[in-house]
UniProtKB/TrEMBL annotation:
<dbReference type="InterPro" id="IPR016195">
    <property type="entry name" value="Pol/histidinol_Pase-like"/>
</dbReference>
<dbReference type="InterPro" id="IPR003141">
    <property type="entry name" value="Pol/His_phosphatase_N"/>
</dbReference>
<feature type="domain" description="Polymerase/histidinol phosphatase N-terminal">
    <location>
        <begin position="57"/>
        <end position="118"/>
    </location>
</feature>
<dbReference type="GO" id="GO:0004534">
    <property type="term" value="F:5'-3' RNA exonuclease activity"/>
</dbReference>
<dbReference type="GO" id="GO:0035312">
    <property type="term" value="F:5'-3' DNA exonuclease activity"/>
</dbReference>
<protein>
    <submittedName>
        <fullName>PHP domain-containing protein</fullName>
    </submittedName>
</protein>
<dbReference type="InterPro" id="IPR052018">
    <property type="entry name" value="PHP_domain"/>
</dbReference>
């Protein structure tokens, strides 16, 4: 045999063995994380049996009307299994979505994710059809169209590396901002395949919700950008599922949702789909909705107090109070970004200067191995901090 052919075969054999060795190693590591996932204990905060129920739902969900893997009926079934009351569907450039409807006990609300030359813009609550829209048009055209239709516009995954929002002028106009995004968590994990992606994939083999929660990690850049925009006027912070059916809709819905406290929207929703749509979209746009990483527990008993609820503003020097649900010591902590300082008791926030303050509750959640890691649990919209009135 020609020595060169023999050498080439040897190299090929070594290459195949190396690839198989790496795959076996990765499977072994994934198996370890799968084993550890069997011991992950949820929820971190036990439910309160006597608490009034909160209206719960999913926002930013794709179906087979665009690039989602499930029909609206499949999405509704998944939402029902996860205990949700509503789903806001936001298929790409779906300029004529179907009207709101009850399906399998879940309210399906029409929305849209618009592709513009500056990035993606999600929108919901339109009272009239969007006019003169074309995909990948100028961002100001989409923002104006949503406003003219009576809807609420939201910057979709605005700092994501794949599709960030690139137009500064319209960024200051749009009232909503996706502060946390399940799809962004996944894309960020792709940049850390060994420390984030592989543990999540391994855990998903045994505990899919734990697998999704392992993707959740602090993202300082969205928070910093959001607080910069929130200095000008009150802003709406939303957590987006950006669900396409992979991971499964039910898994993502069980890990994360948007909830309305009973004093904002007492249940049950109207059985008239159009009336129920108005109830949900008005509450969603009110800045009083709460993002909840639901796998960690229900928000029963949570409240953020000390600001004007109508304007979502408070003056410099005011003190916000964080009411925490009943919990075991060491399982929860309040975290503060922006113009606020957390008091030693861990439940009061002094407003230190004009701008905006973001207050979140984090939970000591099951980690990648057998320990625990801090993860966001309850995420309200920010409070705008205004100068103290003269003479005070």
């Amino acid at each position: 045999m020609d020595p060169r052919v023999k050498s080439a075969k040897r190299l090929l054999s070594l290459g195949v063995r190396a690839v198989l060795g790496v795959l076996l190693l990765l499977l072994g590591i994934a198996g370890f994380f799968a084993f550890a996932a069997g011991f992950a204990d949820y929820p971190v905060v036990a439910p309160t049996p006597t608490a009034k129920p909160w209206i719960r739902g999913a926002y930013h969900v794709h179906t087979t009307r665009s690039d989602g893997h499930g029909t609206p009926a499949k999405v509704a079934a998944a939402a029902k299994a996860a205990g949700l009351d509503f789903v806001v569907l936001t298929d790409h450039n779906d300029f004529k979505p179907p009207i709101a409807t009850w399906m399998d006990g879940v309210l399906l609300i029409p929305g849209v994710e618009l592709s513009t030359s500056a990035g993606h813009l999600a929108a919901f609550g339109m009272q009239r059809p969007l006019q003169d829209m074309k995909p990948w048009g100028p961002p100001e055209q989409s923002v104006a169209a949503v406003e003219a239709a009576g809807g609420t516009a939201v910057l979709a995954h605005p700092v994501q590396t794949k599709n960030p929002w690139k137009d500064e002028a319209t960024a200051h106009q749009v009232p909503g901002f996706e502060l946390y995004s399940a799809d962004t968590f996944f894309r960020q994990a792709l940049h850390s395949p060994l420390s984030r992606l592989l543990p999540a994939l391994g855990a998903s083999l045994v505990n899919p919700v734990h697998g999704v929660m392992l993707l959740v990690a602090p993202e300082p850049e969205p928070t910093a950008r959001f607080l910069e925009l929130a200095r000008e006027r009150p802003r709406l912070a939303l957590c987006a599922h950006d669900a396409h059916g992979l991971p499964a809709y039910e898994t993502v819905f069980s890990a994360l949702d948007l909830e309305f406290p009973p004093e904002l929207l007492p249940g049950p929703l109207s059985r008239d789909a159009r009336e129920a749509e108005a109830q949900v979209t008005q509450a969603l746009a009110s800045t009083q909705a709460l993002c909840v990483f639901r796998a960690l527990g229900a928000p029963d008993g949570f409240a953020l107090e000390g600001y004007d609820a109508k304007s979502r503003e408070a003056p410099v020097g005011a003190v916000l109070t964080v009411r925490l649900p009943e919990h075991d010591p060491g399982t929860l902590e309040v975290r503060v970004w922006g113009e606020g300082r957390l008091s030693p008791d861990g439940q009061h926030v002094e407003l230190t200067g004009p701008g905006a303050v973001q207050v979140e509750v984090w939970a000591h959640a099951p980690g990648r191995f057998f320990g625990h890691e801090w993860r966001p649990w309850l995420v309200p919209s920010p409070v705008r901090v205004v100068p103290r009135p003269p003479g005070i």
